[in-house]
Amino acid sequence: MDWELVKLRLSMAGVAIVIIGLGLAIALGVLALVTGSVAATAYTITGILVFIMFINIIQWLFGPYIINAMYHAREVSPDDPKYGWLVDIVNEVAEANGIKTPKVYIADAPFPNAFAYGSPIAGKRVAITAPLLKILNKDEIKAVLGHELGHLRHRDVEFLMFIGLIPALIYWLGYSLWFSGIWGSWWGGDGRNSDSPFMIMLIGLGLLAVSFVFNLFLLALNRMREAYADVNSAITIPGAARNLQRALAKIYLSVDPRVGKIIRRNAGSNLSHMLFFSPLPKDWKEIPESDVDELIEYWRNYKPSVTEELFSDHPHPAKRIRLLDKYAEGY
């Protein structure tokens, strides 16, 4: 039994339960206090959830078309003379994951990246930017695709969209109470608090603050899903653990070649806020393998603080490297 996977799944389940259970309890408790009516509480919760779900579902269904327009993404066919080989790799990775091969796109973006997306009407898709193909070899690209198709396999978009309903519910409930408090009125209930609009406004502001805290929980859950996708690549693609480590290091080194020099000059430097989405420098050259090894070793021994990834939707690279070490051969 893979205890690392078991621990990761239990952690994700625990955070999801906290978000749903505690979030609903807070929303129900506040509404019951404000309205004094079970029926009004139920109708309000249901109404806000339906409203949020409607917006999220529309974004989910049509999001892939918007993404393609933003990135000027074009679909790659198997007989494409320049990128046809990518379809073969995606097909191989999809087969290893037991899923249908998604459509493959090349995204017109100046930064190295890959991402999976899709919806029931647009189908499943994976996009790769040209700079990523420039800096990675085929084995590293396959490892990155193992991560991205892991998101499709685990239905991460749908899962996080569902869990995200709770922070959104608390936010909209807080906004509604705050707004009604400002105007000295509020909807529902028996009117016992109608003479306390200032108190209603304070409760609304408190819920807005609580929604921010719940979004931090949601970010933590997203970081776990990213780690889960890393493990997916490592256990479905031979050699992917090492290749994914090298891909991560190359992305960092490509967006800022000074990283290698910073590490050598200051072993205590904080690299957690390096931008993944910077354009490749005009004077960019092939990344020395020694720099890649050096950055991976630096991350392997670096202990990030909680604040370094608190507002990030991805785990700190140091944590990703050490997790992948557990699945790498010969480590």
Protein traits:
331 residues, 4-stranded mixed β-sheet, 65% helix, alpha+beta, single chain, 6% strand, 4 strands
Describe this structure in words.
The structure is a single chain. The protein has twelve helices and four strands; from the N terminus they run ααβαβββααααααααα. By secondary structure, the protein is α+β, with helices and mostly antiparallel strands. Strands 1-2-4-3 form a four-stranded mixed beta sheet, sandwiched between helices. Strand 3 and strand 4 form a beta hairpin. The longest helix is centred in the middle third of the chain and has 40 residues. About 7% of the residues have low confidence.
In brief:
The chain is built from 12 helices and 4 strands; from the N terminus they run ααβαβββααααααααα. The chain is of the alpha+beta class and 331 residues long.
Oligomer: single chain
- Which of globular, elongated, flat, extended, rod-shaped describes the shape? globular
Radius of gyration: 23 Å
Order of helices and strands: HHEHEEEHHHHHHHHH
Strand content: 5-15%
First CA to last CA: what distance?
19 Å
Which helices and strands appear, and what pairs or packs with what?
Layout: H1 3-35, H2 38-71, E1 74-75, H3 84-97, E2 103-107, E3 114-119, E4 123-129, H4 130-135, H5 138-153, H6 156-163, H7 165-182, H8 197-236, H9 240-255, H10 258-265, H11 289-301, H12 317-325
Parallel strand pairs: 2-4
Antiparallel strand pairs: 1-2, 3-4
Helix pairs in contact: 1-2, 1-7, 1-8, 2-7, 3-5, 5-8, 5-9, 7-8, 8-9, 9-11, 9-12, 11-12
